[in-house]
């Protein structure tokens, strides 16, 4: 029995209906007619593999990566890049309406950037698999804990993607290749860092091999023995500092390789620009930046002349943001405070003092407690950056239908091309 694919879900699967049941079909695109084979069946829905493609969508393209379909890093390489963006915009609109019961007054044009070689942060697993001939370095296979047997990656910058095979060979030569489970990639504007997770002490010969690799491929090694706070530079020690820049705001942002930064620096620059345009910071205003991280939005707010206060639950990130503020000469206009924003109350927010405007940039769980706790003299404008359209829609419902805001505009930022991840930005006004 064939079905017509109606839309994409938040994981990039085609959505169809058959006998009253929703069918989520891996690899199918809207407008296609397919047959399917169910691999997980529930009373009201089922997950299925695409069996036969009976009518192909005009948006279907040949995937660029030869590992696509096995590697779980991408889910939409079989879809035209422009169609991916349009599909994500529809996902945002659908979530806002069906979950939040809100519609934006204006749809913002999508934010674009490079669609290949964009990923400046990644975590690659390392595993010794004798049956596959030695060490594997790569992402997990789709829906599996196995490591994909990959030799290249199209979403990593080419200079890093070409290191996969040399890294496989290097780890295989070290004394305990089965005790080095992970390599984290953190690329800055001036240096490329690889963080090697080390469960056993390296031998002097191991260290020599790491140094030779760094010299040959112009990278800097950091080592991590336990948690993120154990990460230290190893070689070379005279490398430039790891940082990224926001040239439009004359800001340089140092960071440690395990601290959160956006994976796509190209889109991040445009996203910061749009956020500042929507927020419109002015001298004399006091603006709060919630879930501020290391100050990605806080410092541009301060650079525009407003007094910026960043709130973040991690003391380490607050310390980093405070240092970054001083590094950029903004300590007089930007301050940072430790605050658990998932348990915030009306009393907590009242204690912060009045804010003319807010910027909110939460993780996937959203900012439900913050939105519920807003009371008193509310900010006139809220810019909400979201990495999950469902929680954005939930919080939009509260802001519009309870707190009295209107959703002035919303749109997507294609932060993760070739994946189903939807990053978005919304403006709420009173």
Spell out the key features of this protein.
flat, 430 residues, OB fold (Dihydrolipoamide Acetyltransferase, E2P), Rossmann fold, six-stranded mixed beta sheet, alpha/beta, 22 strands, 28% strand, eight-stranded mixed beta sheet
Task: Reconstruct the topology from this structure.
Elements: E1 3-4, E2 7-8, E3 14-18, E4 21-26, E5 33-41, E6 45-55, H1 81-98, E7 106-107, E8 121-129, E9 134-138, H2 158-161, H3 164-173, E10 182-187, E11 192-197, H4 204-217, E12 220-224, E13 232-235, E14 243-246, E15 251-254, H5 265-279, E16 286-290, H6 298-303, E17 307-312, H7 315-327, E18 334-338, H8 346-352, E19 357-360, H9 368-373, E20 381-386, H10 389-401, E21 406-413, E22 423-429
Parallel strand pairs: 4-6, 7-21, 11-12, 16-17, 16-19, 17-18, 19-20
Antiparallel strand pairs: 1-5, 2-3, 3-4, 5-6, 8-9, 8-10, 10-11, 12-13, 14-15, 20-22, 21-22
Structure description:
By secondary structure, the chain is of the alpha/beta class. It folds into three domains: 60 residues, Nucleic acid-binding proteins (OB fold (Dihydrolipoamide Acetyltransferase, E2P), Beta Barrel); 199 residues, Rossmann fold (3-Layer(aba) Sandwich); 112 residues, OB fold (Dihydrolipoamide Acetyltransferase, E2P) (Beta Barrel), CATH 2.40.50. The protein contains ten helices and 22 strands. The strands form four sheets. Strands 7-21-22-20-19-16-17-18 form an eight-stranded mixed sheet, sandwiched between helices. Helix 1 packs parallel to helix 10. It is flat and about 65 Å long. The model has no long low-confidence stretch (mean pLDDT 97).
């Amino acid at each position: 029995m064939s079905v017509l694919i109606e839309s994409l879900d938040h994981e990039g699967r085609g959505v169809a209906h058959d006998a009253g049941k929703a069918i989520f079909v891996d690899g199918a695109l809207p407008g296609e007619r397919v047959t399917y084979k169910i691999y997980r069946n529930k009373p009201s829905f089922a997950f299925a593999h695409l069996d036969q493609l009976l009518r192909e969508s005009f948006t279907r393209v040949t995937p660029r990566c030869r590992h696509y379909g096995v590697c779980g890093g991408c889910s939409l390489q079989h879809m035209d890049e422009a169609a991916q963006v349009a599909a994500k915009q529809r996902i945002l609109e659908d979530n806002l309406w069906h979950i939040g019961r809100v519609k934006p007054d204006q749809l913002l044009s999508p934010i674009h950037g490079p669609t290949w070689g964009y990923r400046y942060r990644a975590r690659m697993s390392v595993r010794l698999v004798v049956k596959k001939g030695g060490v594997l370095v790569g992402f997990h296979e789709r829906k599996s804990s196995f490591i994909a047997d990959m030799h290249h990656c199209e979403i990593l910058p080419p200079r890093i993607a070409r290191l996969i095979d040399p890294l496989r060979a290097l780890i295989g030569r070290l004394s305990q290749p089965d005790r080095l489970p992970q390599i984290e990639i953190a690329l800055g504007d001036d240096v490329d860092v690889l963080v090697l997770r080390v469960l056993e002490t390296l031998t002097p010969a191991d260290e020599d091999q790491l140094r030779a690799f760094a010299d040959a491929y112009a990278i800097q090694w950091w080592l991590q023995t336990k948690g993120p706070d154990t990460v230290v530079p190893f070689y070379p020690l005279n490398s430039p500092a790891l940082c990224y820049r926001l040239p439009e705001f004359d800001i340089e942002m140092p960071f440690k390789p395990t601290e959160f930064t956006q994976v796509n620096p190209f889109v991040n620059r445009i996203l910061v620009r749009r956020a500042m345009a929507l927020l419109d910071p002015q001298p004399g205003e006091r603006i709060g930046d919630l879930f501020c991280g290391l100050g990605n939005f806080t410092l541009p707010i301060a650079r525009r002349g407003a007094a910026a206060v960043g709130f973040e639950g991690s003391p380490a990130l607050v310390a980093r943001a405070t240092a970054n503020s001083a590094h950029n000469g903004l300590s007089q206009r930007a301050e940072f405070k430790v605050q658990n924003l998932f348990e915030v109350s009306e009393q907590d927010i009242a204690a912060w003092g009045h804010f003319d405007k807010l910027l909110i940039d939460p993780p996937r769980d959203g900012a439900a407690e913050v939105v519920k706790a807003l009371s008193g003299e509310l900010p006139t404008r809220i810019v909400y950056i979201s990495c999950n359209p469902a929680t954005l829609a939930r919080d939009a419902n509260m802001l519009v239908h309870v707190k009295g805001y209107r959703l002035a505009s919303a749109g997507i930022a294609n932060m993760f091309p070739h994946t189903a991840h939807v990053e978005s930005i919304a403006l709420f006004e009173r």
